[in-house]
Amino acid sequence: MDLRQFLMCLSLCTAFALSKPTEKKDRVHHEPQLSDKVHDDAQSFDYDHDAFLGAEEAKSFDQLTPEESKERLGMIVDKIDADKDGFVTEGELKSWIKHAQKKYIYDNVENQWQEFDMNQDGLISWDEYRNVTYGTYLDDPDPDDGFNYKQMMVRDERRFKMADKDGDLIATKEEFTAFLHPEEYDYMKDIVVQETMEDIDKNADGFIDLEEYIGDMYSHDGNADEPEWVKTEREQFVEFRDKNRDGKMDKEETKDWILPSDYDHAEAEARHLVYESDQNKDGKLTKEEIVDKYDLFVGSQATDFGEALVRHDEF
User: Fold this and answer.
1) Burial class (CB in 10 A: 0-12, 13-18, 19+), 175
2) pLDDT tens for residues 160-196?
3) What's the pTM?
4) DSSP per residue over 147-166, as a string?
5) Which residues, if any, are the signal sequence (predicted)?
6) What is the pLDDT of residues 136-148, one digit of tens each?
């Protein structure tokens, strides 16, 4: 499967995804964990290193001396200080941690960017995306793979327009990221809910009833006996999903299901790092305060951010 076919499948993956009769499809979008380490500063700062740098990037600090680590950390602080006022606030630190947490998303966008930016102007227009993604597929009224490409294109265009904040049908990298990963952006969450409901709401009445909910996850496929997890999901629907007990989920109930308000680990970690490093207790950090606590932030090593900084790349 080439990139265009992959993206077309991704566009409606929830609608067309195939699953085994006893395989559960999970539509819920949870925040990725900051680290799989135990958060116990009395034992080590490994959790904090993973949270601040990203688990993979944290490993590359191992080869650096404390002096090198402090130097690189100082350069990272300059990037975290978004408003360039000489201080790192809890909010700026939270944004950095979230960026590290979701670096795989930005890497995914970066890997696709050149494919779609056909005129190399640093932007992706809707026409560029449509031409690269769909090309001549729209001319085939009966494609072999069974996909309705015109329907998919309409859906993509709607999402593209929502991601495009200024309405010029030209996406910046941030807008293109919102288009490809809408669940990561607050202003895109309505389209995630809308697309989910369109996938599951087979009778198109604007609601998801119990059988539609179960049918999206499980196909009987001639089997009379449901797996135990299906019975549990029926109970979950009645007890927790259908909050007003009317037998179906509306948009708000669907949003609570697929986009739950999880505990904000990035916010908690930012608060922790500020508390541990803020020597004068003014609620914000100077570069000196952060570097003084380099063992908390990065240990005696630095990051792929460190390697990136050597290459003068932007994280």
Assistant:
1) buried
2) 999 999 999 999 999 999 999 999 999 999 999 999 9
3) 0.73
4) --HHHHHHHHHHHHHHH-TT
5) 1-19
6) 777 766 666 657 8
